[in-house]
């Protein structure tokens, strides 16, 4: 297991290089001179030339790429707009993104898994049909559009929750109230996909012969469902949750923009607006690395769920 973890962590190296190269190439296609945008109304040819020299915009493509990658890895990459180290700016915003993603995950798991299990046990019942109908809608509607609907309902119409902003850490009342709407909005797609997958996985497992045997021996139905069927159905469910959680960090870009949430996703959007190439570079790379780490954690969880799985 330890050797496998080291091997997967080493895969971060080509992932970082590949993502950074593609990202840097895309940034070069964006119109506009970052130095000219930064200067605004104070623009002069001399000032533009000075900033281009300071940030290396006059260098060839490959020189600028390796310089930016080296500065990012060493923590020396500077933001053009904010005038601070990129790693420090991202670090201040990462807490808000982690809070949003963590609460979204908790909400999704607490709602989706019980819903899927009950829908499978009560197949073709009114609960099953209604919950899967709602899940289909949840998959079809983008999370940011759901967020806009939530803002209208709970902030504009009922006026019970704030529509945007950051109210502090999640354990405070103000922080929790500001976190509820973006967290629920971000979790809708995961709730929908996980509940449908939980239902289908449970239905497949419940057809197995060993469950029929357990029933014939008089084992209680609750034990059959929770101990035998559900545990064996967990592998695809955990895979889906891991993939969805990793995708949440990308989807957070839109949700954070809709709710003015001060996370890394909104920071990346602002960096694009200001043509702050170092900050765009650092923000997207951090989100990409989080994606890889989350998938590694999912692989490790597999072993604890099913000891028959081993990585050599």
From TrEMBL:
Give the way it sits in the membrane.
Answer: Multi-pass membrane protein
**Localization per Swiss-Prot or TrEMBL:** Cell membrane
> According to its UniProt record, which protein family does this protein belong to?
Belongs to the binding-protein-dependent transport system permease family.
Name one cellular component (GO) term.
Answer: plasma membrane
Q: Which GO terms describe its biological process?
A: transmembrane transport
The membrane spanning regions, by residue number, are 9-30, 100-121, 133-158, 178-197, 284-305
Q: Which UniProt keywords apply?
A: Cell membrane, Membrane, Transmembrane, Transmembrane helix, Transport
Protein name from the UniProt record: Peptide/nickel transport system permease protein
* Superkingdom of this protein's organism: Bacteria
**CDD domains associated with the record:** TM_PBP2
ABC transmembrane type-1 domain span = 94-302
- What's one Pfam family the UniProt record gives for this protein? BPD_transp_1
């Amino acid at each position: 297991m330890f050797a496998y973890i080291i091997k997967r962590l080493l895969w971060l190296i080509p992932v970082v290089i590949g993502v950074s190269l593609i990202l840097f190439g895309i940034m070069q296609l964006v119109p506009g001179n970052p130095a000219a945008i930064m200067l605004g109304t104070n623009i002069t040819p001399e000032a533009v030339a000075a900033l281009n020299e300071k940030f290396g915009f006059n260098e060839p493509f490959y020189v600028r790429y390796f310089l930016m990658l080296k500065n990012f890895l060493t923590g020396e990459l500077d933001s053009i707009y904010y005038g601070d180290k990129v790693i420090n700016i991202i670090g201040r915003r990462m807490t808000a993104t982690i809070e949003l993603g963590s609460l979204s995950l908790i909400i999704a798991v607490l709602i989706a898994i019980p819903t899927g299990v009950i829908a499978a046990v009560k197949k073709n019942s009114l609960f099953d049909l209604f919950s899967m109908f709602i899940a289909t809608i949840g998959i079809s509607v983008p999370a940011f559009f759901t967020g806009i609907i939530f803002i209208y309902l709970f902030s504009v119409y009922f006026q019970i929750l704030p529509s945007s902003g950051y109210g502090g850490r999640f354990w405070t009342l103000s922080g929790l109230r500001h976190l509820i709407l973006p967290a629920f909005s971000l979790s809708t797609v995961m709730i929908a996909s996980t509940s449908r997958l939980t239902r289908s996985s449970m239905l497949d497992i419940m057809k197995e012969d060993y469950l029929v045997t357990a029933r014939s021996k008089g084992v209680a139905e609750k034990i059959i469902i929770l101990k035998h069927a559900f545990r064996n159905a967990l592998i695809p469910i955990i895979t889906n949750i891991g993939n969805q959680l990793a995708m949440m960090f990308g989807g957070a870009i839109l949700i954070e923009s809709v709710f003015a949430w001060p996370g890394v996703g909104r920071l990346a959007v602002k960096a694009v607006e200001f043509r702050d190439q170092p900050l765009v570079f650092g923000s997207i790379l951090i989100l990409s690395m989080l994606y890889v780490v989350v998938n590694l954690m999912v692989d490790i969880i597999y072993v604890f769920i099913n000891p028959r799985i081993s990585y050599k």
